[in-house]
From TrEMBL:
<dbReference type="InterPro" id="IPR016167">
    <property type="entry name" value="FAD-bd_PCMH_sub1"/>
</dbReference>
<protein>
    <submittedName>
        <fullName>Xanthine dehydrogenase family protein subunit M</fullName>
    </submittedName>
</protein>
<dbReference type="Pfam" id="PF00941">
    <property type="entry name" value="FAD_binding_5"/>
</dbReference>
<dbReference type="InterPro" id="IPR016166">
    <property type="entry name" value="FAD-bd_PCMH"/>
</dbReference>
<dbReference type="InterPro" id="IPR036683">
    <property type="entry name" value="CO_DH_flav_C_dom_sf"/>
</dbReference>
<dbReference type="InterPro" id="IPR051312">
    <property type="entry name" value="Diverse_Substr_Oxidored"/>
</dbReference>
<feature type="domain" description="FAD-binding PCMH-type">
    <location>
        <begin position="1"/>
        <end position="212"/>
    </location>
</feature>
<keyword id="KW-0560">Oxidoreductase</keyword>
<dbReference type="Pfam" id="PF03450">
    <property type="entry name" value="CO_deh_flav_C"/>
</dbReference>
<dbReference type="InterPro" id="IPR036318">
    <property type="entry name" value="FAD-bd_PCMH-like_sf"/>
</dbReference>
<dbReference type="InterPro" id="IPR002346">
    <property type="entry name" value="Mopterin_DH_FAD-bd"/>
</dbReference>
<dbReference type="InterPro" id="IPR005107">
    <property type="entry name" value="CO_DH_flav_C"/>
</dbReference>
<dbReference type="InterPro" id="IPR016169">
    <property type="entry name" value="FAD-bd_PCMH_sub2"/>
</dbReference>
Amino acid sequence: MRPFELTAPTTVEAAVAAPGTFLAGGTTLVDLMKLDVLTPSQVQDINGLPLHGIDTADGLRFGALERMSDIAAHPGVYPAISRALLLSASQQLRNMASIGGNLLQRNRCTYFRDVATPCNKREPGSGCPAISGANRMHAVLGTSGSCVATHASDVAVALVALDAEVRLVGDDGSRVVKLADFYRLPGDTPEVENDLRPGELITEVVVPRLDFAARSTYVKVRDRQSYEFALCSAAVALDIQDSRVVDARVAVGGVATVPWRLPVVETALRGAPATLDSFESAAALAVEGAKPLSGNGFKTALLKRTIVRALLELTEGSR
């Protein structure tokens, strides 16, 4: 790790006015600094900022510095969000990691984390060896000729499914952005991962009220049951009446370069009977536009099965 200057602002205004990389839980930043993937000369410890609080009175509101473990355990948090948080990491990491930091965590591509190899995210224009190299964990949706890395956050998938927004504060004031619009596809500029402007800070995560999200879940498929990143995951919320799907929210992770909302699957589910056949027909649409690589072709079949598994989990006993 290279030397850096550490400061600790006590107000949001001071934080966004000063230069430096923000440090909250540090569960991603510190790792990348140790690897020399990130080498900031100035770091701002923002844990003293007033960005805490969990409000479930009308929808959900989380201060950006709330820890993952506290949100997961809070009454009134939608099950898909709580479960995504619980499956994200070990208890020790969940106790440290902030919700804002989790949404901004970097991808887990081994080429990105190895400074001895090229990576367009780390060094634009240097190339993407994952396209023809070791790519079992990589994306099949939302890829480009510049990057095929998957987005790492579990809870971002659940939040995108439930139409979450983030409040951002910078020198020019505050703004609210839908989380689905906040993340950027790699295209020709994979180094630009989100809509965060220089100096801006996530201050709050807002999930609009969605009563049927009380019937929601997050299914995560991984190589081992203990702490591991997703090969595929699905966040699903269903409104079922008289054994038919009235409304649905579906997003997936582990298979795309950003948390991947599936409106085509949602549309196919609406009005359909809550049956295995209907679920399989809707899930088949999830792989439209998929571009498997040499080592991850299995993800297209796994994606469909994961969505069906999540749907069945929510409808057992109601069909």
